[in-house]
Amino acid sequence: MSSCLHDHSRWGPGDQLGAANQLTPEMTLAALSLAKSGQVLDLSHMIENGAPFMAPNQTPYVITSGATARNSMRVRAAMGATNEVGANLERVGMTMHVGTHIDALGHFSIGEHLYGDHTVDESVGDFGLINLGIENMGPMITRGLCLDVSGLDGGEHLNPGRAVTADDLQRCCEAQDVSPQAGDAVLINTGWGRYFMTDNATYLEGEPGPDEGAARWLTGQGVVAIGADNMALEVLPGTNHPEIMMPVHQHCLVEAGVHIIENMVLADLARDKVSSFCFILLPVKFKGATGCPVRPVAIL
Description:
Blueprint: H1 25-32, E1 40-42, E2 62-67, H2 69-78, E3 89-93, E4 101-103, H3 120-123, E5 124-125, E6 128-129, E7 140-148, E8 163-164, H4 166-176, E9 185-189, H5 200-204, E10 209-210, H6 212-220, E11 225-228, H7 247-256, E12 259-262, H8 267-271, E13 276-281, E14 291-293, E15 297-299
Parallel strand pairs: 7-9, 8-10, 9-11, 11-12
Antiparallel strand pairs: 1-15, 2-3, 4-12, 4-14, 5-6, 7-13, 13-15
Helix pairs in contact: 4-6, 6-7
């Protein structure tokens, strides 16, 4: 990990967009032109009670009824309503990092430093992020690449602690005849997503994923987002664990201003050998949030 020598200096101190500064209307039109059949693949998991979470920082998703049709009919009838008007509402408790979600640039720091020369003291308040919250991220419509590394070791998936290196990614790109370009969203299929909600204990015990070198190779190509079919994108435990923890998050979010997308559903893209596609992701503007659940799609 560097001493916070930021890759984002070209966008100036105080920037809130990061690598997404590169996205242009021309890139959007080029991405839309990749859609030929109109088939839409949902790249997200359902968010439901029991969804895996990393304790203690993350908390479980909980949904309860805040109002029910039967009770609201009684209340409104007592107020004079005669048309049996019922309404159902709910209350939800969750971290923004449950299910398929995207990390805001303010999610991680390197010491006191956040992306864009922002600092922890000036940017983290009692009611969320003052700077670098997910509300600053715009809609992402760009070219997506799915790099399928699940079979690198001869099985259906890579194993926990298996680092995907820059060399692995380069060889995968050669095999799939694709090359990351500025503005791309690169999604890495490790095969580990098969355990989401089928065996959460296994899903959370560790994971295969890119190491810091792989992340630096991708950000060096100008990508705007990196995603994977695992809980934390990067390999866990890391290659220098426990001395160095979460270096991919530090590099991508703090140094490079590149968004991270986690818990993705990439098996269909890998099965159908879809390497490039129109990628659409629309973040919900939760002001001050360090991320948000998303429903990214691939349009083929």
